[in-house]
Amino acid sequence: MHAEHKIRCLIIDDEPLAREILKQHIKGVEVLELAGTCNNAVEAISFLKMHPVDLLFLDIQMPQLLGTNFIRTLKNPPKVIFTTAYRKYAVEGFELDAVDYILKPISFERFLKAVNKVLQVNNFTEPVSLPKENNTETNSLFLYFRADRKMVKVFFHEILFIESLKDYIKIVTASKTIVTKYVLYTLEKMLPPGEFLRIHRSYIIAINKIDSYNAENIQIAKHELPIGKIYKIDVISKLNASSAAN
Q1: pLDDT single digits (tens) 57-100
Q2: pLDDT tens by residue, 147-166
Q3: Does the 7-121 domain belong in CATH 1.10.3720.10?
Q4: How is domain 140-245 classified at the CATH fold level?
Q5: Could you give the 3-state DSSP secondary structure of residue 172?
Q6: What are the sequence ranges of the domains in the chain?
Q7: DSSP label of 234
Q8: DSSP letters for 103-128
Q9: 36 - beta bridge partners?
Q10: Cα-atom radius of gyration of the chain, to the nearest Å?
Q11: Separation of first and last alpha carbons in the chain
Q12: What pTM value is reported for the model?
């Protein structure tokens, strides 16, 4: 494989949100090309018969056939990066010569680390890195969230702040508010690095949407959000550093 050849990727995962996150990560790396997505391993078997693929992003815990068992059915499997929420499969994954094993939720930084391992295996000379903050690819990143019996698209750059409501989260943008069943910590790991900041156990804010702040609160549009005591030193330090840089 030469450097000018794009790595054709297939996502195999039964979770719609997990597929969407990987699709957006792949979109953010120029050397990668999305060949397709499959909901399960059985569907992937048919896909691979018709389409050549260089790399699989393969979930392990899936209905009908485990990802690890699926790999064993392939005579000449592509390179594999296992994606799973369960640590217990790690040893088995590496025994199957997987390039990497990523625990969900998958941050973009961790995704790039795994991709760079693939590039090393295939003798690519230049590693890939995080895009700059003003990169148009970053501005196009989004996720779908289930709300009101439908999947709602939310672009990261539109988010003002995110609030935890026990088993739910509230995502607030300038144009809409979405309440969906999700864990704030899980979503935090998926947000673009350097653009969002945890200011309280219940709040994550978009740094570039801040109108004003003091030692106690942050003002974003018409919303006054509290800074948690355990977060205060880190939050004020980062915001002061950001102000100084500008």
Answers
A1: 999 888 888 888 888 888 888 999 999 877 765 555 556 778 88
A2: 887 778 888 899 999 999 98
A3: no
A4: OB fold (Dihydrolipoamide Acetyltransferase, E2P) (2.40.50)
A5: strand
A6: 7-121, 140-245
A7: H
A8: ESS--HHHHHHHHHHHHHHTT-SS--
A9: 10
A10: 20
A11: 43
A12: 0.56
